[in-house]
Amino acid sequence: MHIEIICTGDEVLTGKIVNTNFAYMSQKLEDAGLTVKWETTVGDDREDLLSAFLRAGERADAVIVNGGLGPTVDDLSQEVAAQAAGVELVLHEEWLERMRSFFTRRGHTMSENNVKQAMLPEGAEFVDNPVGTACGFAITIGKARFYFTPGVPRELRRMLENEILPRLLAVSGTQTVIRLKRFHSYGLGESHVDSLLKGVEALAPDGSVKLGFRAHYPQLETKLTVRGADEADIKAKLAPVEAEIHRRIGNYIMAEDDDTLEGVVLDHLSRAQGSLAVVETFTGGQIAARVAPLPGAEAVFRRGIVARHFDEIAAALGMTGAPAFDTEPPTAEFAEQVARAARVQTGATHALAVMVAIEDGEDRIDLGGTVCIAVPTADDVASRRSRLAGGRDWVRLGAAEMGLDSLRRYLQDLPIREPNDFEKVDKL
């Protein structure tokens, strides 16, 4: 099946907004075993849109059009779709009533220009949008089936997953079951993991398992796309490959599938009836912001202390002898003292301290920063000192991830200190 995605809008074409919708759609289709062959971006121009629709209708089997379903004058998808299909626009009464109800429930009166969103090409198939006012629809143009979707990301995602993907799979000719298995890791780069996992696909028969990666620093997502006749077949094919991945990179796997690193940490602490205090410098409170809002965190998360200078951290915890922020990098011993003091002050069973010092110089891209991490309990403390490569943002993201991952490792009885592809070791 040849699939094309057409993204519309002047703001997308000119780069005023980043086109994350295309990346999401393409990834979702790929995960389902459907490959996008073409991507076209078109501005809010009738002739350009018509040309793009007609061209896609000649070469593709299925086309997803994103954007242009709003109520304003530059939202042109319905009108141009009708023109390309050679039909008139007609009012979709059911959708009009749903829009009016949508506004009424929110205490608003629907504007007259919203009626435009209920005008669909004659004969179009309704594609539901349960979370917005943009009405999705499908229509045949040329030899291709077109699916029109809203530009609002959360509306697009619901429509793609619940409505469009099932339709595409039904007509794709691929009637096998497809499962996506994901492993989220930190500390190993994409090329390194690719080398470590060489040959794992061969453990499953007939090319039924496909290995892939998605790098988004500081994490790496390792993906297995598995095809089978049914769920039992999928499980049998996946089992040896999954076991081998765990054997080769197991300690670096932080979470799997829809789980997150912070969710894994919270789950371990919750099951042990534990609690947590966090102390951070330079990260801007990223660690606390990832843990504290989670469901169930109210029973676990005690306090987050965030400051820029080491002496401010020490003062908040009633400590003395903090390193001079401008001249002395933090030490593992200082991080241990901070973490212990935070645990005692809050009464938490566990604490996490992440102390960061950015190296100064003319070119900070290559210089990096020193990161000291400590995780204490009443009877023990584990710590590590690392020097991360990269600029300020790279170090900030890496320090938060390394801190949370160190806590995860501690809770899982794994070594905190293992080789990390993002470290510089020349000055440790």
CATH-defined architecture of the largest domain = 3-Layer(aba) Sandwich
Number of helices: 14
Strand numbers in spatial order across the main sheet: 2-1-3-8-7-6
> Mind describing the biggest β-sheet?
6 strands, mixed
| Average of pLDDT | 93
Q: Uncertain regions: pLDDT < 50 for 5+ in a row?
A: none
CATH topology of the largest domain: Molybdenum Cofactor Biosythetic Enzyme, Chain A
- CATH homologous superfamily of the largest domain? MoaB/Mog-like domain
End-to-end Cα distance, whole Å, is: 54 Å
Q: What is the share of helical residues?
A: 25-40%
Number of domains: 3
CATH class of the largest domain: Alpha Beta
Set down the secondary structure blueprint.
Layout: E1 3-8, H1 10-13, H2 20-31, E2 36-42, H3 46-59, E3 62-66, H4 77-85, E4 89-91, H5 93-105, E5 119-121, E6 125-127, E7 136-141, E8 144-149, H6 153-171, E9 177-185, H7 190-196, E10 209-216, E11 219-228, H8 231-249, E12 253-256, H9 261-271, E13 276-281, H10 286-291, E14 301-307, H11 310-316, H12 332-346, E15 350-358, H13 364-367, E16 369-376, E17 381-388, H14 392-411
Structure description:
The protein has 428 residues and is an alpha/beta fold. It folds into three domains: 3-171, Molybdenum Cofactor Biosythetic Enzyme, Chain A (3-Layer(aba) Sandwich), CATH 3.40.980.10; 177-256, Alpha-Beta Plaits, CATH 3.30.70.2860; 261-411, Maf protein (Alpha-Beta Complex), CATH 3.90.950.20. Helices cover 37% and strands 25% of the residues. It has 14 helices and 17 strands. The strands form four sheets. A six-stranded mixed beta sheet has the order 2-1-3-8-7-6, sandwiched between helices. Strands 14-13-15-16-17 form a five-stranded mixed beta sheet, with helices on both faces. A four-stranded antiparallel beta sheet has the order 10-11-9-12. Helix 2 (20-31) packs parallel to helix 6 (153-171), helix 3 (46-59) crosses helix 4 and helix 9 packs parallel to helix 14. It is globular.
